[in-house]
């Protein structure tokens, strides 16, 4: 008997959180593509934390949606300030500590195995960011 086991079809399709591979044709003059990654996790009863690993930003909320909405608003404000400052390459990316990356990787792994007992959601979003104000 072969020790290799075929994975079910739902494990073989591409995950929506798969790393985004962007071709050079997707770049526009004066803009650069950044991929923002992060996660939202439950920390207790009606308490959620959202983390953007690319910008090292964290927010809290009473639901996953609220925590994620606050994080997206905070990311937008951070990016606007960085662009207005004229130093987008200085401020983006601003990497989170390794501990948060480890938590993200463990969460993705446990999601894949369906072993998480608390809500955990990961996100990955590509954005074109203007390089100058």
Task: Describe the protein in words.
The protein has 133 residues and is of the alpha+beta class. Helices cover 35% and strands 27% of the residues. The chain has helices at 9-12, 64-85, 88-91, 98-113; strands at 31-44, 47-52, 57-61, 120-130. It has a four-stranded antiparallel β-sheet with strand order 3-2-1-4. A hairpin with a 2-residue loop joins β1 (31-44) and β2. The radius of gyration is 17 Å and the shape is elongated.
Search tags:
alpha+beta; disordered N terminus; 4-stranded antiparallel beta sheet; 133 residues
Task: Provide a quick synopsis of the model.
The chain has helices spanning 9-12, 64-85, 88-91, 98-113; strands at residues 31-44, 47-52, 57-61, 120-130.
Average per-residue pLDDT, rounded, comes to 77
Please state the structural category. Answer: alpha+beta
What spatial order of strands do you see in the largest sheet? 3-2-1-4
- What is the end-to-end distance? 63 Å
Low-pLDDT sequence parts? 1-26
Shape: elongated
Q: Helical proportion?
A: 25-40%
The number of distinct helices, counting runs of at least 4 residues, comes to 4
What's the number of extended β-strand segments? Answer: 4
